Amino acid sequence: MSELVTAAQMRAIEQAAISSGKVTGLALMERAGQGVVQAICETWPELTIGAHGAVVLCGPGNNGGDGYVVARLLAARGWSVAVFAYGDPARLPPDARANYERWCRVGGCAPLTALDDSTFSDAAVTVDALFGTGLTRPLPSEVLNALMFASTRPNAAAPQRPPIVAVDIASGVDADSGRVIGGDEQGDELPYWPALTVTFGAAKVGHMLLPHAGDTRHKLVVAPIGVEDDIARAYLTWNVVEHLDLAAVRHIDLLGRPDISLQALELAKDVASHKFGHGHAVILSGPAGRTGAARLAARAALRVGAGLVTVAAPRDAMAENAAQLTAIMLREAEGAAALADLLRDKRLNAICLGPGLGQARARDLVPVALDATRDRDVSGVVLDADALSAFADDPVDLFTMLHDGCVLTPHAGEFARLFPDLSARLNAPAMTGPAYSKVDAARDAAERAGCTVLLKGSDTVIADETGDAAINAACYDRAAPWLATAGSGDVLAGLVTGLLARGYAPVTAAETAAWLHTEAALSFGPGLIAEDLPEELPKVFRALGV
Ligand SMILES: NC(=O)C1=CN([C@@H]2O[C@H](COP(=O)(O)OP(=O)(O)OC[C@H]3O[C@@H](n4cnc5c(N)ncnc54)[C@H](O)[C@@H]3O)[C@@H](O)[C@H]2O)[C@@H](O)CC1
Ligand SMILES: [K+]
Q1: Distance of CA 38 to the CA centre of its chain
Q2: Ligand nearest to the CA of 133
């Protein structure tokens, strides 16, 4: 599954399934609880033998209802289960209330305030079923304190607290943005880090975004509850234009889904093809002493399959580039007039400006590149690094020149320079849910810029001017911390450029490049430096069956 859903989308899916008579809310809740127990057993197989202890914390809504199911199912396996509730169980919604009552026939239930150190002494896991997708405001202090108490070792001599399993999502985290409601500006610190999160039907958008996705030891399991086909069907109708609130967000997974796998197959080259059929990418180089970034991008463009790649350098950087390029061609392009001249050749169909370019050169050359490509059907322009920062004083000047063949690849700092209001909104503390998310920010930026925006991070978001959005999450089992290395962004810009040269649509080029970039890092592993990324692509292609 690669669909991601918002809380509202998930509620709509569940409601439709229940209204159609296909399933009851109680049955969905039972499957959710079963999914949690199964994921616990798969994560810690040693817990499948013998009886163990569990602490289950239940909230005032259906997330709490899932908790009562988990408590009952664990008790049925012979576990000793201690349940603590927040709120008045008499006011639980009907399905959760029914499961509370079923649990009460099996065991007791204490208020959350009754937690103490002895509660955890025999527990193998703590289950957080306090709040799920219904969270709309900061956690009550009683709940926050309980979660911190359940996750913090009281003193150095005491044993570690048991790992915490989050039901659906860690309580306190907004399912749409991955942000902590009521968190501070600095870092949205989670109340605790789950060892395991078990969500239902499909991952929520917030699972793939920081801070929720920020811990590499955190495992995410999507448990099926029988609405997966409904999600896939609904996905086709979540029309981004008519229902922006239901606009679809995908998790990029070239291995995972038949239609996306088509993208993977497109990476293959036709047997009868020749180099001129795969486009010609141009990477603008900076001055002498700053040429490495352009060569990294050029190498990536060539490896990802552009037929021809040319580095266009100022006069003083020609010798330096010539000494280090072989398959990649080199042309002199000193200033704006020289670039305009070069781009008269319409076979040059993808241009990358930014890596190592220098801001003065960027200011000169970006307008030329955008002008030369505006009215061509099959020409793409990637603007990265200096090509973005050069317009910090007047972003609107840049936006009026951009066209729908462009891809902007800012990191958070460059994004803040071009879209200061969106960045401020994203970084302001989130006090209500659904909170403004990185997906919202990328979508708003793409709409304003009128082109594709790839907002970098371990939770890279790609959005285009139509509202289409996707996340490449280098998180959980795809965590690739070695990607945070000098030159890694230059390679990414080169990958996008190479795919544009091959004729990919801008948004598809950006999505595919982001995914390949992470896969190359995962394939290489620890010790990775930027130069390794293009060289690792053949292995990634082979694994894809290209
Ligand atoms: N039939 C269904 O709809 C299913 C729901 N499921 C579970 O139900 C969860 C969603 O349940 P709910 O919509 O009841 O919501 P939650 O259980 O997440 O929250 C309960 C209620 O608390 C209130 N609330 C929100 N923020 C609060 C705060 N900071 N302090 C105090 N109260 C607050 C809201 O009114 C909210 O509805 C999912 O996360 C999932 O775990 C699953 O059982 C699958 C089936
Ligand atoms: K929870």
Answers
A1: 26
A2: 1
Give CATH superfamily name and number for 3-251.
YjeF N-terminal domain (3.40.50.10260)
Measured CA to CA, the distance from residue 310 to residue 333 in angstroms comes to: 11
* Euclidean distance between CA atoms 505 and 502, whole angstroms: 9
Closest residue by Cα to atom 35, ligand 1, is 134
Residue of 6, 92, 133 to mutate, ligand 1, most atoms within 8 A of C-beta:
133
| CA 418 to each of CA 160, 421, 437, 438, 462: distance values in angstroms, whole numbers, following the listed order | 46, 9, 17, 15, 16
CATH of region 258-426+433-544, choose from 3.40.1160.10, 3.40.1190.20, 3.40.50.1100, 3.90.180.10: 3.40.1190.20
Q: Which residues contact 39 (CB under 8 A, 6 or more apart)?
A: 165, 196, 198, 221, 223
* Token pair of 57 as six digits: 């914390």
**ipTM score for this prediction:** 0.98
Domain boundaries, the chain: 3-251, 258-426+433-544
Q: Do domains 3-251 and 258-426+433-544 have the same CATH topology?
A: no
Q: 96 C-alpha vs ligand 1 centroid, how far in Å?
A: 10
pLDDT in tens, 476-491: 888 999 999 999 999 9
Alpha-carbon separation of residue 87 from 131, 164, 300 (angstroms): 12, 21, 56
- Summarize pLDDT for 528-541 with one digit per residue, the tens: 999 999 999 999 99
Count the neighbouring beta carbons within 10 Å of the beta carbon of residue 339.
24
Q: Is the pTM of this model over 0.80?
A: yes
d(Cα 365, Cα 357) in Å, to the nearest integer? Answer: 10
Paired tokens of 266: 């497109």
Q: Tokens 């505006």 — which residue?
A: 374
